[in-house]
Write a structure and sequence with these properties.
The chain contains 3 helices and no strands. By secondary structure, the protein is mainly α.
Length: 115
């Protein structure tokens, strides 16, 4: 089992978390959150990868004659991409409303929102 994809996923995730922790702008924070989300794509594809396997299309070969990759993991990755894009769009719409109402996207200047 190769560890490089897992290390890449950890690196991408930690890079996004660092950007999220040091962000001084809500739009930048949402971008960093999207980077953290992309680490899950790499992780899911690394879990479903099989060395020497082909696509799970059985039109020209007999089932079981050669190894294939797991199609469930590919479907989960596509679902993860769609959910990530939806969450990013929703958060950007919320930041747009915050910018319209408060005139800033700096989290420290949003004192009215503190409880």
């Amino acid at each position: 089992m190769h560890t490089l994809p897992y290390l890449v996923a950890v690196y991408i995730f930690l890079t996004g978390c660092y950007g999220l922790a040091t962000s001084r702008n809500l739009v930048h924070a949402i971008g960093c959150l999207a980077v953290c989300q992309s680490a899950t794509y790499v992780l899911l594809l690394a879990v479903g990868y099989r060395d020497g396997a082909t696509a799970p299309v059985f039109s020209d070969i007999r089932p079981g004659s050669r190894p294939v990759v797991d199609p469930v993991v590919q479907a989960l990755t596509l679902t993860d991409i769609v959910v990530g894009a939806t969450v990013t769009a929703l958060l950007l719409a919320l930041v747009l409303q915050i910018a319209k109402r408060h005139g800033t996207v700096d989290p420290d200047e949003l004192r009215e929102l503190r409880g």
